[in-house]
Design goal:
6-stranded mixed β-sheet
């Protein structure tokens, strides 16, 4: 009989859509076999051919492809060179580079498939081997932390349900169901330390329990450090770290580096040690580069972060590395865009546009909360103010500009602020977004206050202008919403509602006016429209509060009155004339048989709801 712990572990996986990392080895094949017994899971197999073992690697990929097909599971099989082609600043270390490529593939698949995250097959023996491997390489307590069942890597959920299950039980299950797998020939070589550790543990299985206890104790220590480590300011005196207990100092260093843009997955104990050395040893270099091209300086005992400079040209600054963001990665389907026929390119873009719609569909709950916040604020005399830069800013200004003619709102009720000012609507001023203090100043200029809702729009997630505006708005007491099309970024502002449609890589790499822009427009449409519906600006699906400022809108106004009242076109024109063109007023005048003044009083008493103002029997 199979170990009940296997099925108990699989039963703990939340229902829904999940990507599953499958290498073709015994552990991942067993994981997939177990997961497919769950009817409430929608699985998608992911495999990266690392291209390190020639034909063997290709055979692994083919095995996984055929296995997924045989079991009726969709799959994404990619090669490392293709994934790395869409990445910048790859780590030099091969293992780190392979991990980065694998994570990039996972992020892409999770975004496209709208999955909850990735399930991996790490088990109890993996835990033990990893801890021993790190111990023998000289890691301190923070480096010996056991893997966790669920980990968030910059917005990517990694789930490891088999962490408490030993390897022997996994292999036993495969034997019982008669399932084959691929064996990596390098696993039998004693050249590698991990293989030697695996052999040692197979001969002394009693070691496993003690090693796992060590890993769990180190995790407890790490959690304590995370809860108690001081938060370092952007520029801090080296002495602040020099006198702290080692674990607290290391955790404070990790937090500070993350906030400065160092990718969390690349902050190893060696990386934090480098920062600690700068803080404790005056003889160490006063300038050091960290992962993500982050430059750290020590000057007169103060450590700060600045942009690194291109050697030989001190005037050229290299910006923060954003290559890990979904919107900055390359879309495999469009890598030959310039060689496609026009018909194929149109079909590709149309297919990718549907991804934006699907991404927005995953955000219905936070969008609904945003609508409630906005409606409450507007009803209470507050405003909705969008802050953005580039395409994001223009879309906010556009949405705000459409509210007065569509819903007869005061132009101040919904406003759009774009980095660089009004002229940036017509001529790009992309550099205007780079200062958080400009966003804060813009929020001050708008006199943002307790009654208002401020919505920051940043498709790529990192726009300093937007971050600055949101932080200042929160300081001034406003409710805040953040709309972003990427996974969480370091030092992201704290807000009341986050809306995050993950649209993935663009047809033209980094051009967020495409899918991300489409998703942004859809979200803004939904929020402003349904907030106005909540305020009584719509009757049924008719814009009964429109401002008829041209011939087209005057015709629409007359037809709306005619639709609701059933009166002749001539009579509807008379009602509108008596109501000074106000559609709701004209309808109430007819429904209640009153003049414009009385109709206005009825609407005010009904809170601007036409349905209530019309009285009993309103359709």
């Amino acid at each position: 009989m199979p170990d009940p712990a296997l099925f108990s572990a699989i039963a703990s996986v939340p229902a829904g859509a999940w990507a599953v990392g499958v290498s073709g080895g015994a552990d991942s094949v067993a994981l997939l076999a177990l997961l497919r017994t769950r009817s409430d899971l929608h699985l998608h197999v992911v495999h990266l051919d690392h291209q390190t073992r020639g034909e063997e690697s290709a055979a692994d990929a083919q095995f996984v492809r055929e296995l997924a097909h045989a079991w009726g599971i969709e799959s994404t099989i990619a090669v490392r060179s293709e994934i790395e082609a869409g990445m910048a600043n790859l780590p030099v270390n091969p293992s780190a580079r392979f991990r980065a490529a694998r994570m990039a593939l996972f992020r892409r698949v999770v975004a496209v498939q709208r999955a909850a995250g990735v399930i991996l097959a790490h088990h109890a023996d993996d835990q033990t081997e990893t801890i021993l491997h790190r111990l023998l390489r000289g890691s301190g307590p923070m480096g010996l932390v056991a893997m966790e069942r669920e980990t968030d890597l910059g917005g990517l959920c990694i789930l490891r349900p088999l962490l408490t299950v030993p390897r022997i039980e996994i292999r036993k299950h495969l034997a019982e169901i008669g399932q084959t797998w691929r064996e990596d020939a390098s696993n039998s070589s004693d050249k590698y330390l991990r293989n030697r550790l695996r052999q040692m543990l197979s001969e002394a299985p009693d070691l496993t329990a003690g090693v796992l206890k060590l890993g769990n104790a180190c995790r407890t220590l790490r959690d304590w450090a995370r809860a108690n480590a001081p938060a370092l300011p952007e520029a801090f005196r080296a002495a602040q770290l020099a006198g702290a207990p080692p674990q607290l100092a290391a955790e404070a260093a990790r937090k500070w580096l993350t906030a400065r843009g160092v990718p969390p997955g690349e902050i190893s104990p060696d990386v934090t040690d480098r920062l600690l050395t700068m803080a404790t040893d005056a003889a160490s270099p006063a300038r050091a580069h960290f992962p993500g091209r982050v430059l750290v300086r020590r000057q007169r005992g103060v450590i700060s972060c600045g942009l690194p400079f291109v050697p030989g040209n001190s005037k050229i600054a290299i910006p923060m590395d954003r290559s890990h963001l979904l919107t900055e990665q390359r879309l495999p389907e469009s890598m030959n865009l310039d060689a496609m026929s026009v018909a194929d390119a149109v079909a590709l873009m149309n297919a990718q546009d549907s991804v934006a719609v699907a991404a927005v569909a995953t955000q219905q709950e936070p969008i609904a909360r945003a609508i409630e916040l906005v409606a409450l604020a507007l009803r209470g005399g507050g405003r909705l103010i969008y802050f953005g830069a580039g395409t994001s800013g223009r879309l906010g200004v556009l949405d705000a500009a459409e509210c007065p003619p569509t819903f007869r709102t005061d132009p101040d009720l919904v406003q759009g602020v774009i980095a660089g000012g009004e002229s940036a609507m017509f001529r790009a001023k992309e550099g205007a977004e780079d200062k958080a203090e400009d966003g804060a100043s813009a929020a001050d200029a708008k006199a943002v206050g307790l009654k208002d809702v401020v919505m920051g729009i940043a498709a790529g997630g990192t726009t300093p202008f937007v971050h600055g505006a949101l932080r200042r708005a929160r300081e001034r007491g406003a409710k805040t919403i953040f709309l972003s099309c990427v996974q969480p970024v370091p030092d992201e502002p704290t807000v009341d509602v986050v809306i995050r449609p993950l649209t993935g890589p663009e047809v033209i790499t980094g051009s967020t006016r495409l899918k991300a822009g489409t998703a942004t427009k859809l979200v803004l449409n939904t929020i402003s429209t349904l907030a106005m519906v909540r305020l009584g600006k719509v009757y049924g699906n008719l814009m009964v509060d429109l401002r008829a400022t041209n011939s087209k809108l005057q015709d629409r106004a007359r037809r709306i009155v005619q639709t609701v009242t059933g009166q002749s076109p001539e009579r509807c024109e008379q009602l509108l004339a008596a109501a000074d063109g106000h559609v709701k007023l004209a309808i109430v005048m007819h429904a209640r048989g009153v003049d414009a003044t009385a109709a206005r009083d009825l609407l005010l008493a009904a809170g601007e709801s036409l349905r209530e103002a019309m009285g009993p029997g309103a359709r």
